[in-house]
Amino acid sequence: MQAPQGMTLGRIFGIQIAVDWSLLIIFLLVSFSLSAGAFPSWHPDWSPLLCWVTGLAAAVLFFASVLAHELSHALVGRARGVGFHRITLFVFGGVAHMEGEPPDWRAEFFMAIVGPLTSLVLGVLFTGLAGLFVDLSTLQPTDPAAALASAGPVPTLLLWLGPINILLGLFNLVPGFPLDGGRVLRAVAWGLTGNLRKATRWASRAGQAFAWILMGSGLAMMLGLHVPVFGTGLVGGLWLAFIGWFLNNAAVASYRQLALREALSSIPVRRLMQTQLATAPPDMTISELVDGHMMASGQRAFPVVRDDRLLGLACLSDLGKRERGTWHEATVADVMTGAADLETVGPEEDASSALEKLARREFDQLPVVVDGRLLGLLRRQDLLKWLSLHPELMDEEGVPRRIA
């Protein structure tokens, strides 16, 4: 599954860390529920300022825990030969963007299981640290306020972070793809059958079944029924149904992505690339590019070449790098993305590899290059057009078949 982009925070172990704007929703929800609900109830003597400072700290540390969960996936995956280039934190937690599929079922298993284990270890660690401040034997799950009444902000914070991380770990162990437990299930099925696609289909259907259970439970809660574990209530039911809807879509999409990569695995890029392209010299003005090329055709990306050598790529989105009033003076070279910063592909590479490159850098097109010489351009829409023009490659469910 692919999360939206958002804001880049930096890199950890060479992996780009990004925060999607949707994270603000759950961050505010967690902060508000703790600062205006749980903490004042547990500590009526606390000032509003102390409640809010502790609540905000809890939200920050919770998402730091989610980041640790995702980093564990990425680091173990790297050790097992799987590339990870980005982690995005968003409204449903986090996602580590994996480059391709694991090389074998063992890599999938260890990479998947380490995430929930990390959350469980963090949960036990936080709870254990809280035990240095509070006698845990006096805690009653139904009435935590009694034991927490005399506790300060630090043990209160730890006693919230501990159980929430344990719940996160247990939830991710549910055997429904694309949750970590679903990936563990896929790894086991892959090992037993030797067939990644069949294992993915089984795990995806398990994920859909779990998603429908969540959606049904959420609907029952919204109707006022009491659901074991989840309880009742309109807001909680709506949120649970929303999570179920998201997981169902993610399970279906994950299987389709694998099927798409398999369907394209034997198709060389040269069969799909566009060769009838308008190109631009580096000294052409932006006005000439817009008036003579962009407005006259549906082409949105123009290779910048000199003597058939690729120098860069100028796209519609690059025009904003210069003020409109300077377009008659500024050149294409001033706004293009240089060849060194472009992801390229060879004509004999398979289209599946090209699709992974498009996803990794989140580009819409790839220049097809041999020894620095431009041969064509492969666009994301060309891959989709190929499948749409070959209905025999689709099964009865609209999923790409594997091409022999």
Write a structural description:
By secondary structure, the protein is α+β, with helices and mostly antiparallel strands. The chain has three domains: 1-173, no CATH class; 189-264; 269-393, CBS-domain (Roll), CATH 3.10.580. Helix content is 51%, strand content 13%. The chain is built from twelve helices and nine strands. The strands form three sheets. Strands 1-2-3-4 form a four-stranded mixed β-sheet, sandwiched between helices. Strand 8 and strand 9 form a beta hairpin. Helix 2 runs antiparallel to helix 3 (105-130) and helix 2 runs parallel beside helix 5. The longest helix is centred in the first third of the chain and has 32 residues, at 48-79. The protein is globular. The two termini are 26 Å apart. The model has no long low-confidence stretch (mean pLDDT 83).
Name the descriptors.
single chain; 404 residues; alpha+beta; CBS-domain; 4-stranded mixed sheet; 3-stranded antiparallel sheet; 9 strands; 51% helix
Low-confidence stretches: none
User: What is the residue-mean pLDDT, rounded to a whole number?
Assistant: 83
Helical content (DSSP H or I, runs of 4+): 40-55%
- Indicate how many domains the architecture comprises: 3
Category by helix and strand content: alpha+beta
Shape label: globular
**Strand percent estimate:** 5-15%
The radius of gyration is: 26 Å
